[in-house]
């Protein structure tokens, strides 16, 4: 038996696909019209369930039936297990009746496995720093070098009576760092 499968978001696009599939002599055409990508494709499920040995499935384009590489390999594996065939009308290389179509299936299955391995490896790399509780970014608290610069700038300001700008310049410390550290010391003195 020759099946056709059509799906799309717009009725006009569906009608064109169905007309094209009827021209190729499809005995039964399954269709899915969905509002968004998450809709369950009942027509595709019914078609795959009714497919048996020797059946041929025609589609207008590959993206009509395959939403992802994993789904493509899954659907084509189901058809291969049932000894059914798949033909894409616009992508003539996707014809499992020919040798090049069978070869393409094996290549895409290898690519899918490679993609899954890469994703698994990425997930493992993300988990490792979390497992080691590795802290990323700037260390918390005041660094010793910055504290030394603050003490020198504070000495210049309070003892030598220089302006804050001059004291910070000589100490090679920004004014914002000076005031930030100064506020930390004031709050600590206030608490004690």
From TrEMBL:
<protein>
    <submittedName>
        <fullName>Recombinase family protein</fullName>
    </submittedName>
</protein>
<dbReference type="Pfam" id="PF00239">
    <property type="entry name" value="Resolvase"/>
</dbReference>
<feature type="domain" description="Resolvase/invertase-type recombinase catalytic">
    <location>
        <begin position="2"/>
        <end position="125"/>
    </location>
</feature>
<dbReference type="InterPro" id="IPR006119">
    <property type="entry name" value="Resolv_N"/>
</dbReference>
<dbReference type="InterPro" id="IPR036162">
    <property type="entry name" value="Resolvase-like_N_sf"/>
</dbReference>
């Amino acid at each position: 038996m020759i099946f056709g499968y059509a799906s799309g978001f717009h009725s006009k696009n569906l009608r064109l696909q169905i007309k094209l599939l009827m021209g190729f002599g499809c005995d039964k055409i399954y269709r899915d019209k969905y509002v968004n990508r998450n809709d369950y494709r009942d027509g595709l499920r019914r078609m795959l369930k009714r497919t048996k040995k020797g059946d041929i499935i025609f589609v207008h384009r590959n993206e009509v039936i395959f939403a992802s590489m994993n789904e493509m390999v899954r659907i084509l594996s189901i058809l291969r297990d049932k000894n059914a065939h798949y033909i894409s009308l616009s992508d003539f290389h996707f014809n499992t009746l020919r040798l090049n179509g069978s070869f393409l299936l094996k290549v895409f299955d290898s690519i899918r496995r490679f993609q899954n391995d890469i994703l698994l490896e990425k997930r493992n790399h993300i988990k490792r720093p979390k497992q080691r509780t590795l802290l990323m970014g700037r260390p918390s608290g005041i660094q010793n070098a910055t504290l030394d610069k603050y003490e020198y700038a504070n000495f210049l300001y309070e003892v030598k009576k220089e302006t804050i700008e001059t004291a910070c310049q000589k100490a090679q410390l920004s004014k914002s760092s000076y005031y930030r550290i100064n506020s930390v010391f004031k709050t600590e003195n206030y608490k004690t």
